[in-house]
Amino acid sequence: MFTKVNCALLAIGEAPVSVPPAEPALSPLPIDALQITNTAGAIALKLRTTDAPPEGTMLRAGAPQNSGCRRGVSYRVLGTLNTPSNGYVDITSAYTGRFGAPAVGKRVFDTVNPNVNGYEGIPLVFSARVPVAA
Fold first, then answer.
1. Quick one: pLDDT at residue 65?
2. Nearest residue to 119 via CA among 66, 77, 62, 56
3. What pLDDT is recorded for position 23?
4. Which of 57, 61, 103, 127 would bridge with 53, disulfide CB 3.0–4.6 Å?
5. CB 47 within 8 A of CB 61
6. Residue 7: its pLDDT value, please?
7. Rounded to whole angstroms, how far apart are CA atoms 40 and 56?
8. Residue 75: what pLDDT?
9. Domain map of the chain by residue range?
10. Torsion sign across C-alpha atoms 102, 38, 111, 106
11. Which residues of the chain have pLDDT under 50?
12. Between the CA of residue 5 and those of 14, 29, 120, 122, 133, what are the distances in Å?
């Protein structure tokens, strides 16, 4: 458990601890969907949120999959979520920095979960298909 806590802290850029912290109460995340837009070929990936997610909320994603896939594979840590703007958290740069821009018709999977003092909550999984240019 101690190793798990420190690995989770290191994944979000926090310092490891030498004394295990008390287990916090983790509340549900205010994120409910992944939205992908394609405006004249510019792909944008955003998470729709009803409130600001807690500090340290982890973002993981996998490489773009065929549109028929219903489950993501090989998730990678992309970092933590930024502050939302107009009800959305933009994850475009985090995703494209790791996997490049997804092609039209591909399906993108991502997960988010809280990380408080190294204790991780149950991940929420989202997916969306990249639409044709509007």
1. 93
2. 56
3. 81
4. 57
5. no
6. 83
7. 33
8. 93
9. 29-114+122-129
10. negative
11. none
12. 11, 20, 8, 14, 43
- The answer regarding whether domain 29-114+122-129 maps to CATH 2.60.40 reads yes
Q: What's the pLDDT tens digit per position in 79-95?
A: 999 999 999 999 999 99
The token pair that represents 75 in the structure block? 């998730």
Q: How far is CA 104 from CA 6, 71, 77, 108, in A?
A: 38, 18, 23, 11
CB 52 within 8 A of CB 59: no
Quote the CA–CA distance of 54 and 115 in Å, as a whole number. 8
Give CA–CA dist 54/119, Å, rounded.
13
Distance CA 50, CA 10 (A): 28
Whether 57 and 79 have beta carbons less than 8 Å apart is answered as no
35's enclosing H/E stretch is: strand 31-39
The string of DSSP letters for 38-91 reads: EETTEEEEEEEESSPPPTT-EEEE---B-TT--S--S-EEEEE----BTTEEE-
Task: Give residue for tokens 């949120």.
Answer: 49
How far is Cα 87 from Cα 79, in angstroms, rounded to an integer? 20
What does DSSP say about strands 88-90 and 58-61: parallel, antiparallel, or unpaired? unpaired
